[in-house]
Amino acid sequence: MTRAGGRQRGSGRSDPEEGGDLFVRALARGLSILTLFYVEHPEWGLNAITDRTGMSKTTAYRMLRTLEARDFLVYDTKTERYHLGGAMFPAAYLAMSYVGFVRAAHPFLERLGRTTGEMVELTVGSAEGAVVVDEVPTMNPFRLNRPTGRILDSLGNSSFRLHVAYRPQAEQRRILETLQDQSAPNAPAPLEEVMRRLAAEKDAGLAYDLEEQDQGVCAVSAPVLEHDGSLKAVVTIVAPAERFGARVRRAKVEALRSTAAEMTKHLTGRAAGG
User: Is residue 66 part of a domain?
Assistant: First the structure.
């Protein structure tokens, strides 16, 4: 069974750690370039890639030319930027196996949105955190510029933290140590403190964002689990702070818990609490 982060569980194989015998650094560098391309940033130039990855220009250029030669990337001579090539399509098609789950999950999200009157998001795992795969907007006056397909990589984001919380501790450390987005003003900085928070949120089955990522915006997230207890997805309610006070928050949280439990039971085959 493949968990949200894409690695196998229950196969008797240990996760390869960076620097270990099973870790291929050159491959990791090439993959780190590919993971830069997403909905909000479909094109990258050489200088931007070196700034983001920390590679030297020489190394990055060699990686880019190799990826270009294998049609994983295409270079646009007019813009002097790269975008994804045709070799990515088969992998993208395979990843679309998640589409069935997203389609089946959508009615649950819609019902949660109607019950709470708030915006609802569904996220699945990505290499460094999570990606938003579905969203139900609120009918109340509230709008955020958070498009489907965006990558979550902020410690202030409750959905992102739950995704990281379900990773092995070594992977948690790697993600947290290399995390570049530390813009959330209230996010705890010391690594051990963050890891304790992740463990507590995983145990509670809830993670909150009380204006940590965006001022005036609050959120609460709950996990949808696979039958083996690994993470399938995360459901999140997003609301303006004025509609997220302690009194009204309780009802929204209970609705979220109930929805996540139903999704776990009906969409992944795991009985709630089982």
Answer: yes
